[in-house]
User: What shape does this take?
Amino acid sequence: MRTFATIAGLILLAGILFVCVIFGASEFGGELVTLHTHDGAADRTTHLWVVDDVGFQWLRAGVPSSGWLKRIEADPDVTVERKGQSAHYHAVPIHDPVTRDRIHALMREKYAWADKLVSAIRDPNGSVPVRLEPLPTPAP
Assistant: This one.
């Protein structure tokens, strides 16, 4: 019985360590932006990786059921904080495999080891790139 408890404890510890490593890679693996979305009742913030391509900034939802992706599908007007600056955007999910693969490649190039770790827990074919189209700054 003691051997079983030791093995179960080691498996639990390995699982916790794995989650901590993935979290650390996603939060400390490179440049993060803060995405501000709305869920109808409150503003929500999410830290995400960003890449630049063809004149736009791009985000990537690792899974189509991501909460922030669902919120922008309901209300695509968002605010993004990047390098200390806030800007307003219309967020457009792109469901095209060619675009998805290009954004994956850019993320892999920019975030290297961190992207490899985070990619271990998702199906790359299920991810959704999101193009940020600039909006005029609202009047105060």
About this structure: The CA atoms of residues 81 and 89 lie 11 Å apart. Residues 2-134 form a domain with the Pnp Oxidase; Chain A fold (CATH 2.30.110.10). The mean pLDDT is 84. The helical segments are 2-28, 67-74, 97-119.
